[in-house]
Amino acid sequence: MNEQAALEARIVELELKATYADDLLDQLNQQVFRQQQQIEALARELQGLRQQRGPDGPAGAPHPQDERPPHY
Known about the structure:
Layout: H1 2-53
């Protein structure tokens, strides 16, 4: 009878661990889903900014690295 009680205790412990693992897996899946939504939103925003800028950059606006500092 003692062996059976020990086996039942082990089974209960394994079932609890499996339940916690399933819960953690669900939480991680939800987090990955939210991150994917954020990535897609950022990609759409970046695409919109690229379309506003045009193929050659903003018209008439010099690149900041090409400007001379004021003391020259």
